[in-house]
Amino acid sequence: SSLDRDEATARIGSPYLGGWMVHNSGHINPFAMTIGLAAALEHEGATIHENSRATRIEKVEGGWRVFTASGSVTAPEVVLATNALTGDIWPGLKKTLVPLKVFQAATNPLPEDVRAKILVGNPAVSDMRN
Fold this sequence. Notes:
The chain is of the alpha+beta class. The protein has 3 helices and 5 strands.
């Protein structure tokens, strides 16, 4: 549904000319999702090697060898979880990613009366302007 200037401004808490509301979608907390996914993978027996950028992956007998700057590991299966800075770790993967500029801001905790006027109803907001 479309939002006029007053409706968009009231929901977002910042002046907008208008917008639209999509009712069958939502947003996630990326940090909470990452922690939850990691916990679920570890529960299933996966080992997570944080801060170990993979530089190369090779198919080997019985699975895969993943190389990093400080060594390598082998595993029967590998989950390639990456972002837009994938590089050439897997042929063709970089072509499937769409780079997005995402900006976030953090402040000291805001007073409750201010918080009540910003992102009313906890909407996910995007802006296509440069």
